[in-house]
């Protein structure tokens, strides 16, 4: 029997799950796991909560709590969310488990012994007030590449991975003071040595999706640089080297091993060898924001450890909400728990799968959700199954009728039924989960047309053989649907198979060990039920979502948007609080004339402007690029705040500010160049 190792990206244990997490990672992984189990593949699907790293440590420090306390709370919360969404994980563990420490430290030790890890003295930010180094998220500042706000090692704007010492205007997140650079010893991984083998693996792996390859190629085309593996902090897995008690493994040096430790814990409990699963076929399901971690960092570590590389890496696109980027800080999200208090999990699984291919970003819209559930699940799929069962009961005493003759129309429908499992299977095998579901829904759409054209309620009186053929084939499709829909809508399938009087091993939540082998296999989808087979009493599978239900959800968002706007306005008010005449007197306003203006590479908003102030030419960076072309500004007389501290925006030094309105309308003047404004 072939084996399969499926991993889901490790969620940070500092927040609950929202719909974006399910869409990009957990629902696709679950579809693939359920499908493979039905194909007699010995499958384990694993995950853990990622409980180290600076985000949790920073939050704990800000709240005066122990990091483990925060991790405990969110591990349970995330687990409850995943269970409620029917994610059939075999193992859901934690990176604070001793087994994970053991595997992560062994991984590091192995790489260190083979000289893939070495010591290096580097510059690192140090806070004198807090008396410590500031790794990653303990420091904030401005990205030197795009001028956006950056948190430690990640830019919020351009998404670049950064060294914190690169940040402009750095500040300590805990005390707000400005840190300074000082020397620090850290341990580095020789990522550069794996440039060529990584390039070969990425380009030669036909199982990697094209968009995943493109992400990875962008990272390696300019050459890889060695990668720091350690941090100076207390919260984390200790570096397994004598004398380095104050250092821990960087979270991305140990989080990957969370896949292995989760599998190892499961294997120990059930007398299995997790290596057999990994060495047969391993597939990672992640969000697209960490594709480069899983196609660059992790494969290079595996190569250094002489382990087999993953079969594929599946990166799911982002999910926005009502046309806006999701934001947990603003609360502009739909939390899994809140959603499932009002709607069935299969509705969520359906909508997040059917809405767009996994490699594309997509949007969650409450009104579109209502439309698709009502039109597609209820009026299409649910209606066909309910009519099939109802008419079988009414005209044939709950028994599948005998078929004696078949028209060309019947034969075409029969062929569509028989070909459906293969069409769905091909899509799932190629990780095209939406395409597989579309094949199912298009078939049920055709089935409704077939049913309407055949008119069994009429033909039962006028042409009994035609009615028998219609209900015979319709029941066969329902049986096929009860198998091919199983990876997508497990709860719905349980209801269908109950009416079909068939065995059902469905239990909500995580996978129980003794239920890993399903009672029904994929190949059974092509088996036709015999004439005379008795079915049970039909019940509607889905209820239509009423307008008032959706209006209530939209009202919640409108209220949230209003609250956010009010907070923004309060912030503006604080910025606009009255100042004294003395304070205003400290602002030096000078008439200047623009001599040159040019765009800054990589920025949509910024212009670099040379301004004549009479006694000097001053360089100023101004956010006017979307309002003015550079040539429009030359020779204009403007008002310059001349006594601002120098700053760097997008890596370009700015020595002043041009006054403009909120709409970026530049304030001009007819004054003399160099004249001070009183």
TrEMBL record:
It catalyses: tRNA(Met) + L-methionine + ATP = L-methionyl-tRNA(Met) + AMP + diphosphate. GO terms for molecular function: ATP binding; metal ion binding; methionine-tRNA ligase activity; tRNA binding. Is required not only for elongation of protein synthesis but also for the initiation of all mRNA translation through initiator tRNA(fMet) aminoacylation. PROSITE patterns: TRBD (PS50886). It comes from Methanosphaera cuniculi. Homodimer. This is Methionine--tRNA ligase. It comes from the Archaea. Belongs to the class-I aminoacyl-tRNA synthetase family. MetG type 1 subfamily. Binds 1 zinc ion per subunit. Keywords: Aminoacyl-tRNA synthetase, ATP-binding, Coiled coil, Cytoplasm, Ligase, Metal-binding, Nucleotide-binding, Protein biosynthesis, RNA-binding, tRNA-binding, Zinc. Residues 543-577 form a coiled coil. It is found in: Cytoplasm. Its EC number is 6.1.1.10. One of its GO terms (biological process) is methionyl-tRNA aminoacylation. CDD domains: Anticodon_Ia_Met, MetRS_core, tRNA_bind_EcMetRS_like. A motif ('KMSKS' region) lies at residues 325-329. InterPro entries: Anticodon_Met (IPR041872), Met-tRNA-synth_bsu_C (IPR004495), Met-tRNA_ligase_1 (IPR023458), Met-tRNA_synth (IPR014758), Methionyl/Leucyl_tRNA_Synth (IPR015413), MetRS_core (IPR033911), MetRS_Zn (IPR029038), NA-bd_OB-fold (IPR012340). Zn(2+) binds at residues 143, 146, 155, 158. ATP binds at residue 328. Its cofactor is Zn(2+). Residues 583-678 form the TRNA-binding domain. One of its GO terms (cellular component) is aminoacyl-tRNA synthetase multienzyme complex.
